[in-house]
Amino acid sequence: MTDIKVRVTHIGVVTPQIRTLRLVREDGRRFEPYRAGAHIDVVGPTGVLRQYSLCSPPSECESQLIAVKLEPDSRGGSVALHQVGEGDVLAIGEPRNLVSVVEGADQHLLVAGGVGITPMLSLAYELHERGEEFRLVYFARSRDHAAFLDLLEDADFAARVEIHLGVPRGDQSTLMRDALETMNPSSHVYTCGPSGFMEQVTAVATPVVGERNVHVEHFEAAEIDTSEDDSFTVELDTGESFDIPADRSILSVLTDNGIDVFKSCEEGICGSCVSGVLEGVPDHRDNCLSAADKEAGDQMALCVSRAKSPKLVIELY
């Protein structure tokens, strides 16, 4: 829920399209430390809710920092946050993680493209603070399009950062393979950036570390073919049962029937509506659960995913 009131205390310009907002609590309290890789729900002045990764050090409790890219096809979220000024009040939610540092890995490789540096930056802060072995590889179109470049070049972990500017997409795979040279199935790879970029990282990294050890942070909804969708039944662990038509989502049916489900983006990105699966086989269509989570089949995103079995029994978180 977006029930934390925050004030914008500083606005920074990191590229012509990306600005940062420094947020402090209106009630004067400190934030709790968050797990690196987390994002928050943010409601701007127009009432549009969007998710943004936290990019300040996770242990920093006086304020939180987000970066907002002005999207040309924005539906109001990024445009509104590019119009707020210092002193304006916003509403945010508690940090949530879809990607976080994996315990027990022998090496960590962070691969970012463009504004995808934001969650990778917080992971780098945490890994450095913990003294773990990691590298951060960052691709951007040019210096003008590279967010936090000055910070990365001057950070305490700058020796672990590798920056590539203006490298064509077709040539990036070679550099990624070089970064993976010392990695193995006990290593983990984390990536964020444009969809095509992350697909490329996944394709290069999977043969080296395995599919379960590649962690992807999405900003965009998956493209879904709904032409062959069929109806199915959802039963709650309370015993209530609902028919899900071919053209309706589980989330929408439950909401219309007065079932309180925590939701946010409703596009399979934020993970707000992820719930447990007790029986049945989910048809995963989200961009929030990891490959390992989907393989386990014991949770699903109710806003976009469906069923491969005639019936699902679910537990609302």
TrEMBL record:
Pfam families: Fer2, NAD_binding_1. Residues 230-317 form the 2Fe-2S ferredoxin-type domain. GO terms for molecular function: 2 iron, 2 sulfur cluster binding; metal ion binding; methyltransferase activity; vanillate monooxygenase activity. One of its GO terms (biological process) is methylation. Keywords: 2Fe-2S, Flavoprotein, Iron, Iron-sulfur, Metal-binding, Methyltransferase, Oxidoreductase, Transferase. It comes from the Bacteria. Its cofactor is FAD. Its EC number is 1.14.13.82. It is an enzyme of class 1 (oxidoreductase). Residues 1-102 form the FAD-binding FR-type domain. This is Vanillate O-demethylase ferredoxin subunit. It comes from Nocardioides panzhihuensis.
